[in-house]
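User: These chains co-purify. Model them together.
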Amino acid sequence: TQLLEQSPQFLSIQEGENLTVYCNSSSVFSSLQWYRQEPGEGPVLLVTVVTGGEVKKLKRLTFQFGDARKDSSLHITAAQPGDTGLYLCAPERGSQGNLIFGKGTKLSVKP
Amino acid sequence: NAGVTQTPKFRVLKTGQSMTLLCAQDMNHEYMYWYRQDPGMGLRLIHYSVGEGTTAKGEVPDGYNVSRLKKQNFLLGLESAAPSQTSVYFCASSLNYGYTFGSGTRLTVV
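Assistant: Joint model of the two components:
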């Protein structure tokens, strides 16, 4: 059974601060996705990373896939209240391409 | 473009009752999935389908059945509901990498 850990579990910060959340595993993955879930809604895809060492930027969000494709990080610059939500990482698994999801990092950005 | 639509949004069942959750997508996606989300457990895959007429078990399939008679619809059935099935259920569909999720069904079994 592959372990997938996201850290921290909870993060509460003030508007304007920077933060990084992590997604770590003991397994190598062919790709990895990050999602954000707001209360009462389903997760929404933010980005897919495929290549080891890859860095993708989405406005103030920077995503990195580890060189060994076992870990990933999400960095948010100058966080805003609209960034509040549950951030989930989801490495691809198996020949059918099913996603497994981490338990997520619950981020709260206070104005 | 509605994306993925789940019905109902909320439901309360008594132990032993049955019900069907409906998921419909209008994006012509081949793959469809049912997940449940519980506090502290994250999203766990119940069943999935790689195309019309096909279904397969996921991580937590016991107590659930599914059907994919039409490409756009994926049904999740509970034959005899148990309190342990109290959860938020999410349907998702995909074509390649990214999943598109519905907004969920909150089910309480009393």
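The first strand of chain A starts at residue 4 and ends at 7.
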